[in-house]
Amino acid sequence: MTETQYFLLPGPTQVPPSVLRAGSAPMVNHRGPEFKVIFQNMIESLKQIFRTKNEIITLTCSGTGGMEASIVNFINPGDKVIVASIGNFGRRYRDLAQTFGAEVDFIEAPWGSAIDPEEIKKRLDADSRKEIKAIIFQHNETSTGVYNPLEAIAAACDGHPALRIVDSVSGMASAPLATDEWGLDVVVAASQKAFMSPPGLAFIAVSEQAWQVQAKNTNRKFYFDLDNARKFALLGQTPFTPAIATAYAVAQALKIMLEKGLDNIIADHFRRRDIVRQGIEALGLRCVADPGCASPAVTAIYTPKGIAPPQIVKPLREKYNAVVAGGMGDIKDESFRIGHLGYINDLDLIAVLAALEMVLLELGLDITLGSGVAAAQKHLMKSSK
Amino acid sequence: MTETQYFLLPGPTQVPPSVLRAGSAPMVNHRGPEFKVIFQNMIESLKQIFRTKNEIITLTCSGTGGMEASIVNFINPGDKVIVASIGNFGRRYRDLAQTFGAEVDFIEAPWGSAIDPEEIKKRLDADSRKEIKAIIFQHNETSTGVYNPLEAIAAACDGHPALRIVDSVSGMASAPLATDEWGLDVVVAASQKAFMSPPGLAFIAVSEQAWQVQAKNTNRKFYFDLDNARKFALLGQTPFTPAIATAYAVAQALKIMLEKGLDNIIADHFRRRDIVRQGIEALGLRCVADPGCASPAVTAIYTPKGIAPPQIVKPLREKYNAVVAGGMGDIKDESFRIGHLGYINDLDLIAVLAALEMVLLELGLDITLGSGVAAAQKHLMKSSK
């Protein structure tokens, strides 16, 4: 195993050395005063990133566990819900909702496109009896590298009482999100994305309206029971032993993030997106996402005709020590993905573009070495003023 | 916050420095070849500790998440099950089973005692129609410091088809357990106990019979769906992003454990139990557990008359930097607990006994300084030959 890699996945993401070190501190009592301070500070810092005054509950699980919690606490079996998908993880939300008995009206944008807020509005306007209990939508989708116009989607929900449940696992702190201002009721995030920390913790912000719905929820739940978690959170604890080391890491990562400022962090993500996209397009490759909704967190790229994703991903890793992701879902066999969220050095992106050029040339494609790099450099120079 | 503590909780436990360091390595792709090697080696090592050839599934969650998985995969709503409890976590299993709709026949031993295998046998013998689908019992209970005669309980189940589901979260690798030899169908463990690692991963061994039951299970489940996890495990992966850093830590901890040998590890736990118990009894305090079932993982101790647990736990931490646990459940207000599982130096136990003597003296008790320590020393010298 190579100790140091150019690590450009859409999650887990690179963890800064100080965050790795923070995560290697000795254990403390998760019901003692030391953890209480760490835990409560973590929550307060998370609120700034979520842009919310709502409570944020911490769960020891992956992002999918957080998504499950957002279903089993707020949706009853038989409830009508809309799931608006823009790719693989949107489908996972559909599967989750159906698994727990929801009646799902499934909307899916063409892969590479965002949700049209009008689609949501039309359905809600037609729901004169207000039977729809929740609209589930995504902030960002890693399979396609698309981010949604979250503010406009939220606005399309105005006037309808359905809960707004948002998967922001890969979107949080990479694309804009304002939980309170946009009236988002349930927002799910996870430690291993823009939070630059190891996987193991999920975070879920819950509005007052959502808590009221939760109180009447009839689903069977125990580990993911958010009301129980809320009671323990008031004591600065979790109901069950939390991933303490991951909490240490997240606490340190949040310190770095708040020092940098959320607006700067998001601007960095958009700049990195454009560096990658300029480089990719200069090489004649095509990005999956439409330009208007191209994700600041990850870029999905169609492979050149006749080239399967492993033909690119494998030599990048084996020859150049650069880790990018393969495709997912409908475009699994025709795309690969460069993650650019979290802790990334701009030059890393240029290095990986250079490696990609060499791999493509070795595959027999007509590539001018340095051409993708040059386009990326130009964008980098321009955007750094 | 004090950086170094005498850390004697029944979980999380102390993490050895090399395990902390292992957990602070950079991230890798959880679907890539590097993680596959770590993951598969971890599973193979775990099998040696579980003493099983059965598959072991890894979940990113606390031990309670693993317990939930053992319910929602193997017990249908309406199923009759026996839950045999020896304390607080036995009750949690009852609550879990009831939450997911099981019809629970709840047995509880008096706090401080183990389960009488005859109790189980009587019930199973009376079940002539074989309606009982599962017997859920504990390996070790941290609230009372009691461990069960697992082999005898398992033998009492012989001849009945009910699944044998075992909570071994705090028992695994501290008290004897032989999954295959004793015919245990589902065995749950977690990273933060005798595995000397941070919390965040649960492990669950599943027998062939249990997989057959799982295939017909009708519970709603997604994050804890073990059949899905099994499919991914065949690829050396997990369905959802795992706690990678915790897996690094566990892999290193298992290396240490297998070098030491499971029998030696368990013998160490029993020696440490006796060191603590001898010291405690020499001070005139009374242990909660009957001597015949006193846990090798943790010792629960009644506080002297008129003394509340925080009067002991708090000065131990604040004055002497020694972290022990308060009471739980029925004996919450009359007991405290010294954990001695995982990575413990014998002398740490003696140091904490010394601190306890000073705290008790300061509380006005008639304590001869050094008397508990001396009893512990004698046992230590005898047991080290």
Comma- or semicolon-separated keywords:
homodimer, 385 residues, alpha/beta, seven-stranded mixed sheet, two-stranded parallel sheet, 13 helices, 13 strands, 41% helix
Q: Can you offer a commentary on this structure?
A:
Two copies of one chain form a homodimer. Chain A has 385 residues and is an alpha/beta fold. Chain A has helices at 17-22, 33-50, 63-72, 88-99, 117-126, 150-156, 208-215, 226-233, 244-260, 262-282, 309-320, 346-362, 371-383; strands at residues 6-7, 55-60, 80-85, 103-108, 132-138, 140-141, 146-147, 163-167, 186-190, 201-206, 298-302, 322-323, 335-339. In chain A, a hairpin with a 4-residue loop joins β6 and β7. In chain A, α5 (117-126) runs parallel beside α6 (150-156), α10 runs antiparallel to α13 (371-383) and α12 (346-362) runs antiparallel to α13 (371-383). The mean pLDDT of chain A is 97. The interface between A and B is large, with 61 and 61 residues.
Short characterization:
The structure is a homodimer of 385-residue chains. The first copy, chain A, has 385 residues and is of the alpha/beta class.
Rg of chain A, Å, rounded: 21 Å
The helicity of chain A comes to 40-55%
pLDDT averaged residue by residue of chain A: 97
Q: For the report, how would you describe the main beta sheet of chain A?
A: 7 strands, mixed
Kindly report how far apart the N and C termini of chain A lie.
39 Å
- β-strand amount of chain A: 15-25%
Low-confidence stretches of chain A: none
Q: Biggest interface and which pair forms it?
A: A-B, 61 and 61 residues
Strand order of the largest sheet of chain A: 2-10-9-8-5-3-4
